[in-house]
Design goal:
The chain is of the alpha+beta class. Mean pLDDT is 79; it is low at 1-6 and 26-32. The chain has helices spanning 3-10, 13-21, 132-138, 149-152, 156-163, 174-191, 220-229, 232-239; strands at residues 34-35, 41-53, 59-72, 82-86, 89-93, 108-109, 112-113, 143-148, 196-202, 212-217. It has eight helices and ten strands. Helix content is 30%, strand content 26%.
Length: 240
C-alpha cells in the first residue's frame, strides 16, 4: 500500500467524502479492485459516484455504484510448452491434465474406460517423452474406443481439401468417390452390424509412440471381455 493509500485510510469518513467531492471527473475517480470471499477478482464495467441530497438541498451522503461484468481468476503464468523432435519434425507436447486421468473419465465399465478423453497427441508421443504421471496412469490399463461409420465417412469436399497439396495427384471424380464411399459403408455394416466398432487399445510398450491395438470387436461385451482378460498376444507375451 502506498503512502497516499495509507493516508486515505487514516482519514475520517467525512474527510474522505470531502476529498472525493473535490474530484471533477466523478465517473471513474480512482482505480477500484474488488475481491469476493473466494479470492476471485471481480471485473467491473462501470464505477460511478452518486451524490445524495436532503430535501432541503443540502448534501446527505456519497455512494459508490459498481456494475460488475464477470468473474475471473487472477492471471497465472502458464508453463512454456515442451517441444520435441518427432519423425524429423518439431512437435509441441500438450500437457497432461486432470481430465485426462483414468479416474476422471465419464464412462467406466468394470474398470475399463470407454471413449476416454486422452491427451491430444496421446497416440503420437514417444513413450520416453510422456509425462511420468500419464505413463503411470495408463501403462497396462486397456481402454475402449467406440467408432461409428459417421466417424469414418468423408465428404467429397473434405477429400479434396486433404489432397489438394499432394504434388501431381489427380483427385478421384466425385461420382466414383461417392460409389466407393457407399461400398465402404456397406462393408462397414457387414462387419459391424450395430454400426459401431469397438477398438480395444492399451499403452503397453507394443508400439514406441502410441497405444497398442488389441483388436476390434462388433459388440461392447466382446471388447470388455478382451480388455479385462488381455488379448491373446498379451497373454502369450507374458507367458514367455
Amino acid at each position: 500500500m502506498s503512502n497516499a493509500d495509507s493516508d486515505l485510510c487514516n482519514k475520517s469518513v467525512q474527510e474522505v467524502i470531502d476529498l472525493l467531492m473535490e474530484i471533477e471527473d466523478k465517473s471513474l475517480p480512482f482505480e477500484i479492485v474488488v475481491w469476493d470471499l473466494n479470492g476471485f477478482n471481480l471485473d467491473y464495467s462501470e464505477a460511478r459516484l452518486v451524490e445524495l441530497f436532503n430535501t432541503d438541498g443540502s448534501p446527505s451522503r456519497l455512494e459508490i455504484s459498481i456494475s460488475l461484468t464477470e468473474e475471473h481468476e487472477p492471471h497465472e503464468e502458464q508453463p512454456e510448452p515442451r517441444v520435441i523432435d518427432y519423425c524429423g519434425q518439431q512437435m509441441e507436447i500438450a500437457p497432461y491434465e486432470a481430465n485426462h486421468r483414468p479416474e476422471a473419465q465419464a464412462c467406466i465399465i468394470g474398470g475399463v474406460p470407454i471413449n476416454p478423453t486422452l491427451r491430444p497427441g496421446f497416440d503420437s508421443t514417444p513413450n520416453e517423452e510422456r509425462d511420468p504421471l500419464e505413463t503411470s496412469d495408463w501403462w497396462d490399463r486397456p481402454f475402449i474406443q467406440a467408432v461409428s461409420w459417421a466417424d469414418m465417412a468423408s465428404s467429397y469436399s473434405a477429400y479434396l481439401e486433404r489432397t489438394k497439396n499432394i504434388p501431381d495427384y489427380a483427385p478421384t471424380p466425385q461420382v466414383v468417390f461417392e460409389a466407393e464411399q457407399e461400398e465402404r459403408r456397406e462393408n462397414w455394416h457387414e462387419h459391424w452390424p450395430s454400426g459401431i466398432r469397438y477398438d480395444v487399445r492399451c499403452l503397453d510398450g507394443g508400439a514406441w509412440d502410441r497405444s497398442t491395438n488389441w483388436g476390434s470387436y462388433a459388440t461392447l461385451d466382446e471388447a470388455l471381455a478382451v480388455a479385462r482378460s488381455g488379448s491373446d498376444l498379451q497373454r502369450s507375451t507374458h507367458a514367455e
